[in-house]
Amino acid sequence: MSSLLIKNLRKSYGSVDVLKDINLEAESGEFVALVGPSGCGKSTLLSIIAGLESVTSGEVMIEDKVVNNEAPKDRDIAMVFQSYALYPTMTVRQNMTFGMECRNIDKATQAETVARVAALLQIEPLLDRKPGQLSGGQRQRVAMGRALVRDPKLFLFDEPLSNLDAKLRVEMRSEIKKLHHNVGRTTVYVTHDQIEAMTLATRIAVMHHGVLQQYAAPKEIYERPANIFVAGFMGSPNMNFFAAKFVKTAEGSSIILDGSDGTRLPLPHNDYPGISDGEQVTFGVRPEHFSPAHEARAARKGNASVIVQVSVDMDEPTGSETILMCTIAGQKAIIVCEPDEAPAPGSVMDFEVDMSKVSLFDPKTEMRL
Amino acid sequence: MAETSHQAFDPLATGGRFRRLWAKGTVYALLAFFALLYLSPLVIIFMNSFRPLEEIVREGFISVPNALSWRYWAEAWSTFCLGGSCEGVSRYFSNTLMMTIPATILSTAFGVVNGYALSKWRFRYDAWVFGLITLGVFLPAQMTLLPWAFVLGKIGLSNTIGGLVLVHTIQGISFTTLFCRNYFLSVPDDLIKAARIDGAGFWRIFRRIMLPLSPPILIVCVIWQFTGIWNEFLFGTVFTSGANQPITAAIVAFSGSGTGERHYNVEAASVIFAALPPLFVYVIGGKYFVRGLTSGAVK
Fold first, then answer.
1. Which residues does residue A333 pair with via DSSP β-bridges, in sequence order?
2. CB of A88 within 8 Å of any CB in chain B?
3. What is the complex's ipTM, to 2 decimals?
């Protein structure tokens, strides 16, 4: 059963379309991440699901019921806001019971629910404090507690971690994951952080300019991005894009990098129906799919890799890995490798490219080939 | 705003000791001078309210009383003849109270609800509605005299305290709406959204979330309205007469149209009666007033 279904959704403010023909479906218990750069419409989409903004055309369905014209309170959803939006004059306990109070749930049940959720989130000692007396992480917990006491059909998160410092963000990220695991409710999570999306979601919806670019499992999004935007947005450092020429012969397909000596880089399969011999393509390789050339590694990867010559311009050691700014066949590239294997800036070295992981895009339509 | 560990201004870092003393002395001297200038009318009036008439005539208006007596205060309150009746200012004092208290409460209440609706429940053309309401702030009171006279006559509230309550309530809504709306703009919209998702409606959000956040602006509205309505003179003189006048309109009788001798001492006491409530409200609420006016500007 689909817990959330969005059909042909459009939203415009006057003549400006902020959401264009969005189709999205979440199964019961799924964790959907809406990700994209700021201004892509992801928060608007969440507000529409919550009922805080109206729909221009299309349908929003929650558990097979069209909710386009239902008020937020009748949709049976709970939302965690980026600013937490805790009621400043109420104690933590009152913050958590307010929703139940509005729904006329009796006091005994309220107390019971608060006790259960407070135990789950370990916020019992905070129950009688005001939000102003809490730290950022504690507020975050209370905001989640306020959503959890409701036991709704749908949890909505609007960039809940972006106000926390880096360390706390990572902690809360795994807490949210654990929580979703325990509670098992369908969740829609808006974030601009692609790592949050990758780590938390069962499916990721990548949005750009109000258009849903790709909606798929994290692995699929990462390995087979639907277009250049998705490929560039997901993954850090960014995927490398090279201008190249597609060559199709009897032995198989390969590409030749523009500016290279004409070396053919054979592609692992021959299934590129949308393109013919000699056409220009955009050749995408993730930084971690380069590795220093070693006999053994090439063999282990089933000979799916080819060797390219790389000149290293600059390095950025992060400790766990070293990021190299390089030039390959006159084109800029970023490579990630192990610190021990990193060549010195200024040197020229052979790297092998794992061709089983590369992507080809049409440079005109920017779509995956 | 970011918290800074150092003082915003360190007076010790401005130079030599002599210069410091001199600067400090100048500041205090100037402050004392202006304080005296501002306080002198009050002090003179206050002293005259204790002095017998002969003493005032003999020694002049500005002088220290030779003996303290509350006689003239009592006379001013209950027996002094003013505007045709001899009940002192007590009657007019209570008229003003009966007018000011309901008008203050009502105009503040309307202003808070207006401000809440205009800032948190945006609707089409809400900016126009707000603009029209606050136009009243800039509209000179004398322009509204004729329309009000017409309305009060039509609904039978001419020459009544109730009529003045109505006039002041409606005139005051412009100010209270302006204050409250601007104050509520600083309350994050997410709070309202969260409450709507929690299932609360317009009035529950108002009662449980907005009102508890409102004391600073409520105090501003109450002080502003109370002192404004108490001191208001034009509407009082135009729309009421005789025993129904508020105190500000009644004490105009002192202004010289009288034929008999002038009771400077009793008049001084009456004037102080007329000035006490706003003074009292200011002393009690002044610090909240300043805080409320600047809240939102500095977070």
1. A326
2. yes
3. 0.84
